[in-house]
């Protein structure tokens, strides 16, 4: 009886040590493909760090503003990480907001003016969870790449117009002028987000596609 318990315990331990199997629903008939969860964690956090870094790289370069990995990294984080880890990227971006405002742009920092932006960070992570967690195909990725930057374009520029920060009059013409002036930055965000999601989601899909025949032909593969 004791030997049976020991054998069962060792079997459970070995099962935990086996890499997790991920079944690709995009390729019917293919066998399970190995996926390393540690690599997913690393990529999710590295993309957030890349988002922060690119904010500093484009700061002061007006034609490149918003050409950052922020939106794409938040969408990917929501798609690959659980809710309980949401505070990590949001907190990091909040610190970068303070540093950019105070030390790069040399403006006084008023946290009340960033509530909308911080809420948007959380909303984009939720959007990534909703659209890309269960399935990350081309259609869902493209929709996320459009909806993420578009939501920021709408929310952020409305906040700018309401605050009167750039002197836009509180009229319909002033609101339209505010949005029109931000179109180049919106275009930059669309391009950057599309690139980030194409690489972050497309590269693993390509690897799975290339590895599928190898796994299928492996003796003993299910």
Mind explaining what this structure looks like?
By secondary structure, this protein is an all-alpha fold. The protein has one domain. A two-stranded antiparallel ribbon has the order 1-2. It is globular, with a radius of gyration of 22 Å.
Q: What number of domains? A: 1
Shape verdict = globular
Give the ordered list of helices and strands: HEEHHHHHHH
Proportion of strand residues: under 5%
Largest sheet: 2 strands, antiparallel
- Total strand segments: 2
Order of strands, main sheet, comes to 1-2
- The count of helical stretches stands at 8
**Strand-pairing-aware structural class:** mainly alpha
Output the radius of gyration: 22 Å
Uncertain residue segments = 1-34
Mean pLDDT rating = 84
What share of residues is helical? Answer: 55-70%
């Amino acid at each position: 009886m004791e030997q049976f318990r020991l054998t069962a315990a060792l079997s459970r331990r070995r099962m935990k040590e086996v890499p997790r199997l991920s079944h690709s629903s995009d390729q019917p008939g293919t066998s399970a493909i190995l996926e390393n969860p540690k690599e997913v964690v690393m990529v999710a956090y590295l993309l957030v760090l890349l988002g922060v870094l690119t904010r500093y790289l484009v700061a002061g370069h007006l034609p490149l503003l918003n050409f950052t990995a922020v939106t794409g990294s938040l969408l990917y984080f929501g798609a690959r990480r659980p809710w309980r880890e949401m505070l990590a990227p949001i907190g990091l971006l909040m610190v970068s907001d303070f540093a950019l405002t105070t030390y790069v742009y040399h403006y006084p920092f008023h946290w009340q003016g960033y509530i909308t932006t911080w809420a948007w960070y959380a909303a984009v992570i939720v959007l990534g969870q909703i659209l890309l967690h269960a399935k990350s195909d081309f259609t869902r990725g493209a929709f996320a790449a459009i909806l993420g930057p578009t939501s920021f374009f709408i929310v952020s520029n409305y906040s700018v117009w309401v605050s009167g920060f750039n002197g836009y009059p509180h009229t319909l013409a002033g609101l339209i002028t505010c949005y029109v002036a931000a179109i180049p930055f919106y275009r930059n965000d669309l391009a950057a987000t599309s690139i980030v999601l194409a690489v972050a989601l497309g590269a693993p899909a390509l690897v799975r596609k290339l590895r599928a025949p190898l796994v299928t032909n492996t003796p003993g593969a299910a």
